[in-house]
Amino acid sequence: MKNKKPNWTKTELQVYIMLLCANADKKETEEELEMIQSKTSTKTFLKMHKKFHEHSEKKRLDKIEKVINNHDYSEMELAAFRREMYKIFFSDCSFSLMEERLDMTLDNILY
After folding, report:
1. Rounded to an integer, what distance in angstroms lies between the CA atom of residue 45 and that of residue 16?
2. Distance from C-alpha of 23 to C-alpha of 56, rounded to nearest angstrom
3. Which top-rank group of organisms is this from (predicted)?
4. Is 36 a residue whose pLDDT tops 90?
5. What is the pLDDT of residue 94?
6. I want to staple 48 with a disulfide (CB 3.0 to 4.6 A). Which of 10, 14, 15, 21 is the partner?
7. Contacts made by residues 76-85, CB under 8 angstroms, sequence distance 24+
């Protein structure tokens, strides 16, 4: 079976990564989901939310790594995106070890 490379837009990729951030501690809160949903259309959010929950943690990271190279992100875009990720990480006023681990992993993938 051929491993098809996802062809997601920047917005879809960012929603997917933010869902990963929200799920880092294995619990997506309503506040986190509302924050993510406010950044995009309902259609895009629902599409990426469905895809996200179809994938294992390893497959999620593999998908992100494959798609990130499809887009040329500027330093400003990445910095703004990192700020959005941190808003999700800190929405519950803590930064767990699992969130910290994911942050380091995403740092390696994004840069």
Report:
1. 9
2. 12
3. Bacteria
4. yes
5. 83
6. 15
7. 78/110, 78/111, 81/14, 81/17, 81/110, 82/110, 84/14, 84/18, 84/39, 85/17, 85/18, 85/21
How far lies 9's CA from each of 23, 44, 72, in Å?
Answer: 21, 10, 11
- 3-state SS of 24-68 is CCCCCCHHHHHHHHCCCCHHHHHHHHHHHHHCCHHHHHHHHHHHH
Q: Could you tell me if 28 and 22 are in contact, meaning their C-beta atoms sit under 8 angstroms apart?
A: yes
Please say if the pLDDT value at position 6 is more than 90: no
Residue pair 88/44 in contact by the 8 Å Cβ criterion: no
Q: How confident is the model at residue 1 (pLDDT cuts 50, 70, 90)?
A: very low
What's the rounded Cα separation, in Å, for the pair 70 and 46? 22
Rounded CA-CA distance 72/99 in Å is: 26
